[in-house]
Amino acid sequence: MHKIVIKVGGSNLKDIESLKRVIALMKSYGEPVILVVSAFYGVTDKLEKTVNGMQNPMKLLRELQQLHEEVLRRFVSDRDRLARAEQVLAVCLENLKALLLSENKKEAAVANKILSFGERLSARVIQTLLDTHGAACSLALPEEIGMVTNRRFFQGSILLKKTTQNLKKSLDPGSTYVVPGFYGVSEQGETVLLGRGGSDYSAACLAHCLHAAYLDVWKDVEGYLSGDPKIISGVKKIPHLSYLEAAELSYFGARILHPRTIRPLVSGKIQIRLFNPEKHLNSGLREASTRISGEISTGTEIIKSVTGNEDITLLKLKGSGVGIKKGILAEVTGAFDEARINIRSVVTSQTAINFIFSRADAKAAGKIVDKLNPNFDFDTEIDDNIAWVAAVGQGVNQKEGIAGRIFTALAKAGINVQQIVLGASEVAVYFVVRRGLASKAAQVIHQEIFKHN
What pLDDT band is residue 284 in, cutting at 50, 70 and 90? Predict the structure, then answer.
């Protein structure tokens, strides 16, 4: 099957110059590959606003038609080919129009299908551009090639065994394909989204199912760094990460890969290579910005990177024995799961259970525990003024003195740590601070570890 699966994200699909680079990078491979694409930059956000009644459907349809036709007319000079491409685009937009104007557009199955149209449109346009400019390829829609998911709308998972069987029948190893990311199809034929940023996960699952050697991710960043260059000076590029290190960095806030990207790749030992099209198009794919694999690499310092996330909220359940009361944790987490609320972290003690959520889920989570409270009699408290900071590196919990250096440095800087989690992961330690202190905490740790002034 195909040796390489390629993922190109929306940040590289936002203007004419970036699309020229996509054509160039596809031609640079010189072998059959699978290209997974996101929606054009900003399109999914507009679709979501329209589903939620914040944008006029007809205005959105005009904008989408103008955007995608403008790209086609810029790159396709043959009149017949252009006419065929515009007809395909028109049919796709008509299907979207029917969904946007339906009375049940907010129902989960319908909303999932509407939000998938960013990728459905971009894949059709990009396939035409590549085919026109010497990179022959075919369109392969998830519903046609059998990318089967469960029925967990908005946050679906691809069923790898069934999808592997389907892809063997659907894809020719000698052909190049363009696949829209971000969604799959349930066994009942419903469109199921894979979560925001889920095109990375789509590509990883395809790589798993095709037994690829590499997943190449092209993004307009310099790979993984030792810290956020927007707030920390003297950051270093990280040439290699283990699967676990990359997964934890993604989970705690380094927004380079979707957090679920790593898992499908581990069993097949499939490497991820991160490339920047502005930097690597002429390198012959010899040196990625960052390479991710099952290997373990260590340098002079155990910690490879410091990252953080301010988009979180803490929900506390408090009361004598609340942490060990039979059934409480199962019932609360089950209610969160039913409401599609993702728990980012949970820490328990005799007198408290602390949940961390994304800020957007905090209000709904609070209502759920208030409804359950009469059955268990606990006090609740929501703390929205928090952030977490994580230090990631192989052996961070085994190497003596690392935690001491981190928290001594924070204490000297006058930063109070509200919660510490050490030992849950073999490659990460994280702690909670006031939101306004998160950037300073990351700077202090980076300076302590890497000795930058």
Answer: low
| Interatomic CA distance for residues 175 and 157, integer angstroms | 26
Higher pLDDT, 374 or 268: 268
Residue type for position 212:
A
Is 37:68 a contact under the CB 8 Å cutoff? no
Q: What span, in angstroms and rounded, lies between the C-alpha atoms of 35 and 95?
A: 24
| Residues 36-58 pLDDT 10s | 999 999 999 999 999 999 999 99
**Tokens 């155990």 correspond to what residue?**
302
> What letter does residue 29 receive in the DSSP assignment?
H
Pairing verdict, β 345-348 and 352-358: antiparallel
Do the Cβ atoms of 171 and 140 come closer than 8 Å?
Answer: yes
| Tokens representing residue 228 in the block | 């956020």
| pLDDT tens-digit series, residues 101-146 | 999 999 999 999 999 999 999 999 999 999 999 999 999 999 999 9
Residue 183 contacts residue 112 (beta carbons within 8 Å): yes
Q: Are 199 and 38 in contact (CB under 8 A)?
A: yes
Is there a contact between 25 and 57 (Cβ–Cβ < 8 Å)?
no
- What element of type H or E holds 436? none
Domains observed in the chain:
4-221+256-293 (3.40.1160.10), 305-450 (3.30.2130.10)
Closest CA to 403 of 308, 303, 254: 303
* Under 8 Å between Cβ of 247 and 235: no
Torsion over CA: 223, 224, 226, 227 (sign): positive
**pTM for this entry:** 0.92
